[in-house]
Structures are given as structure tokens and as C-alpha cells.
Amino acid sequence: MSTNQHQPHEHSHNHPHHHPHPYDTVHEHADWHTHDHNPQHPHVHGGVKDYMMAVAEYRKTFASKQDVLEQTPDPAVREMMLRLEQLGHDTVFDRFDQQKPQCSFGLGGVCCKICNMGPCKITPKSPRGVCGADADLIVARNLLRSAAAGVAQHGVHAREILLSLKFIAEGKLNLPLLGEKKMREVCKAFGIETRGQSARRLAGKLADVLLADLSRALPDEYKTIKALAPTERQKVWKDLDILPISAYNEVFDAYHRTGVGTDGDWQSIMKQFLRCGLAFCFTGVVASNIGTDAMFGTGHRATSKVNIGALKKGYVNIAVHGHLPTLVSEIVRIGHTKEFIDLAQKHGAKGIQFYGICCSCLSAMYRYEGVIPLSNAVGAELVLGTGALDLWVADVQDVFPSIMDVAKCFKTTVVTTSDSARLPGAEHYAYDHHHANIGDTEKLARQIVTRAIESFAARRDVPVFIPAYEVTADVGFTAENIAEQFPGYHALARSLKEGTIRGIVNMVGCSNPRVVYEKATVDVAEELLKNNILIFTNGCASFPLLKLGFCSKAGAAKAGNSLQEFLTAHDLPPVWHMGECIDNTRASTVFGGIAAASQTAIKDMPYAFASPEWSNEKGLDASLAFRLFGIDSYHCVEPPVQGSANVERFLKHDTKATLGAVMNVNTDPKGLAAQMVADIEAQRQKLGWN
What we know:
Elements: H1 44-59, H2 65-71, H3 75-86, H4 92-98, H5 104-108, E1 111-112, E2 120-121, H6 135-169, H7 180-189, H8 199-215, H9 223-228, H10 231-239, H11 247-257, H12 266-296, E3 302-306, E4 316-322, H13 325-335, H14 338-346, E5 352-357, H15 358-367, E6 371-375, H16 380-384, E7 391-394, H17 403-409, E8 413-416, E9 427-428, H18 441-458, E10 471-475, H19 479-485, H20 490-498, E11 503-507, H21 519-530, E12 533-537, H22 542-547, H23 561-570, E13 575-577, H24 584-598, E14 607-610, H25 617-628, E15 633-635, H26 645-658, E16 663-665, H27 669-687
Parallel strand pairs: 4-5, 4-7, 5-6, 7-8, 8-9, 11-12, 11-14, 12-13, 14-15, 15-16
Antiparallel strand pairs: 1-2, 3-10
């Protein structure tokens, strides 16, 4: 598959990848710098009061636990919150209230803890830190460190997958390559000869290329960008001098330049911020997606029960929680074998049932029957509070330490499966730091499933409370099966151009107790659908959309007239669920395919990216990745930049000239949705698609 034929192949979260096409237009903007100011006369004297007022107003919008109880769109969430309150258990919502009022300096990004001469904060009395750093520099450094952390987090995800791919090639890991067809297509895009090559040999070659982009120290081209990014975007990034060397290099450089007494220019810091965004996109997301699909296949369309009401009494109930698929895939396979089902029944169970929290769930749900999605990370304590889970498999990222308190009370066994993610009190069955025991994958999985059966037998006295809320969702949308249903994406392009579909939004992101839990995501989705805007979703933001019927075919009734007619004619839901956080690539591949069929550059299409409730470093990078492709991002949560007028202006205004896209924030979800609709309509008007 050559990159200019627009064949679908996903590589994503948290992110956009598109094929180059000859009608991409090129921005002319070689000038990097935006707003200069005299370092001898910092602007903070007139800005400290302004940022303090802005932060104070922003803090007033924060939700309380009572707000969540009154306004949560999911009645199961309300019931479980009340249940845990009656039992005397704190949840994330209690702890958020206990933290109020949140620190103004932290919210504004003007607290610096980098060296031990501080910590320092910017106030009217102290407009500079001890070292002389002003508000612009402190905010920029904090933001870059968050972005670098996001690169490291998704980069570790990518490293685990790519090492697994390489270990399969070397015969150290006994797993089949279920996505061989996809892998061969991607190899062609990289210029790797596939004729006469075995699947294992190709897996090794592909892993080496992707691992080089992850870890090279000697400057060289970033092969994934060269092979898979649009030519128009590559020129933009080259002109701005933001092409990364490798993911490791950019994280190293980010922490080095933000160290005490190193880079003192906030604009230089923000250039590195953009480099981190590209490394996050093309290694943390694109490479992760390529490796996952090569090993485990792309998955298939299916229906799934969703929400807490789908928990089953009398079964050995196992929840998988986190982001790494290799060991989880084997755990699910082992749990589905007759040997272990018979063992469970011997211990008095009806069978073995798997459930999911966060992205381990969504990855497994796409590839194995009967893995039921329950909740994103913020709701994990509520799921544990049902008392229905016998074993909780925790790998990495978005696994809050507080789950141990709830698990202990309900005698749920928690096992950790990564050397880098331990929990006090949890049992540990994992690969070691050097992956020297990668060949023990099946053995580890057998130990974990056996432990689940033992836990079931020991928990028969635990009371179970399951709110009776569940729905059926249609899942499994991939670039491949969308292209199969709409060959060449031409029918989708035509519907978009004619206005049957007014625009397309990729809605992702984590959840954040600053806003009413899951309500912002639902409010934005409702408004977009009413205005005939199609939604793609993946990752944590997809859970409320799954739970509340947006991903079911019956949910087409939520759409405006023209979109509803389109969906009904093709037997589709109004929100297309595309998988875990790294599966943003599925959305962006479809974005690229429709743009190609429309003979229009992606940046000019009526597209948008939304993460209404984002909360972590990965979420910061995810939205940046889409903006790097010229697609505006929209949020209900502010980044910690209000302490610097220059850095805030950079994110929300200045990158329109350089990247063609900006970050938009509105704490009112309905207002945010209205802005998205207006901006999409403006894009249509520029294209003459009215």
C-alpha cells in the first residue's frame, strides 16, 4: 500500500495520521516568533491581578459532589455514589471537594518547583522567581514538562507493544500475528520489501524502524513522519523547525532545557512543546496502533452490553484496567479456555466473565467476544463498590491508588502486571524490568486467572449491589471496515459536501471532576448531533457515550433530520466507537480518506477535535497532536496557563497563523458545542459547501 493511495491503515490517542496527497496546500510562514517583550521589563506587573481574577472566576465553575449527584447523566453513577457514601467510603468526588479551594498559583501555572531554591510563585510582590524566571517562562516550562510526561506515558505504551512485536519475531514470545495483512500494508508504506518475507521477519523489521523513532540519539529523519504524514504538514513542521529526532530525545531535551538555569526563553520552550506533540503523535499513538493491530488484529464490528448493570452474579468476574495489551490479551484467552471454565465451575461458579475499565477494556473488547466495558478511570471506585469483582488486573496509567481502599473493603484481589506500576497491598504478577521473563506470558496469565478463581471461592460472603442499568452498544468501527462499507470514502465525502453530514468531530479524552462527571461530554455530543455533525469516539470519553445509548443504532433518534436519515439508511449509530486512546489514528485515517475523496486538504475540512473533560498530561498532548495537523481542539477544562498572557495567547490565538489551528476553551459545554458548530459552518462556507 503506497501512502498516496489512501488505503486505510490505522496507527493513533491520542492521534492524527493522514496520507500525503498532491492537493494539500502549503502555508507560507517561516517566521517562528510571535510576541516579543523586553526581559528587563517583564509584563507581569500589569498581569498578576488579571490572572488572579481569571483563576478566581474559573474556580467558581468547578463542580461539587452534590452537583454530580444532581446532574450526572448516568443514573448508575448516582446510585453507586450514594451506596459508597452510605458505606462510609470516600470517592474521587469527595476528595476533589476536600481539596477546595485549589491553589491559584497551580491553576495559573505560575508555581515553580523545579529547583530547591524555591518553590517560587509569581505575585505583585514577587514578579520573578529566585533565578529571575518570569511568569511566561515558568508557565511555559511547566507546560513543556507536562507534555514531555505525556510523551513518556504513551511512549512506554508504544515501547511495550513494539518490544512484544520484536520478541514475537525473535521467537521469545509465543503469540500469533493476527494482523498480518495490516502489517504488510504498513511495511509497504515504510518501503520495507514484503515479497517472499515471512510474517515474523517483517514484524522484526517493522519493530526496528518504529523502535528507532522511539529511541534514536543520532539525528536522523523520523521515519514514521516521513512515511505517513501529509506532505503539506511535513513542510509546515520543517519550516517551523519542530521535526523531532526521537521520542526519547525530545523528552530528554524537554527536561534538560526546563532545568534550572538552562533555557530562559519561553518561545524556545514552546517550540520544544510542539516537538513533543509530534513525538507523542507518531510514536506514542501511531506506532502503538500499528503494533497493536499487527499482533492482535484490527477487531470487528460487534454489539456489547455496557454499564454496571451488565455485571453478572455467580461468575468469576475479572476486570482489566489500564493500557498494555500483551499480557491482558493472554489473560482473556486463557480465561475463555475450557480448562479454566471447568475449573471455575468446579469452584461453584457459572463461568468466567471479563469486564473493562479504561483502555485495556476497549482494546480487548474489539478483539474478543464478551469483554464488557464498565467505566473510565474516574468511575473505577464506583465499579469496585458493587462488590461484584473477584479480581482486578491493573497494568499502567489511569489506575488511581485509591482503588486499593475500596478493593480491600470488598475483598477484591488486585494484581499489578507492570514493574513500573505497583500498588501497596496488591499482588504482583508481571514482566520484570528487563523483560527477561517475556517467555512466561502464558504462565503469568494462568497464574492470574487461577488467582481469580481462588478469589471467587473466598468471597462468597461479600454482599453484591448492582444498579440495574445497562444498554447495548454497537462497537468495532475501524478505518478498514468503514472503507469497506463506503468504498474509497466517496459516499461519506459526498454526504459531507452536500450537507447531509455538516461536519465530523473526534471526541476523546479522560474525565475530570472539575466538571460534572461525564455531563460535559454528553452535553457537547447532544448539541453536535442535533446539528447534524457526526461523532467518532475512543478512549475514556467514549464511556458515557457507550453507556447512554449514543453508540446504539436506536441512538440515531438523537441526531438532526439529515444526519438521522443518513444513519438510518446505512443502519449506523450516531457515534462511531473506534477503540482505545491510541485508536485516534482510526479517526484521523478516516479524516484523511474523506479529505482525499473530497480533494481537499485535511486542515480545510469541516472537522474538529474535542476532549471536553481532559485531565492528564496525555490529554494535553492529544489535543496538541490534532492542532499540529491544522484541526482545532475544543475543551471545557482550562490548561494551567492563565498566569502568562503570552503562553495563553500562543495556545489560543498565535498557532492559527503557524499551524492553522488553536485550542478553544469554554467551561459551558453547550456554549462550547455552539462554538464548534459555528466554526464547522464557517469551514463549510470557506469551501463553498453551503
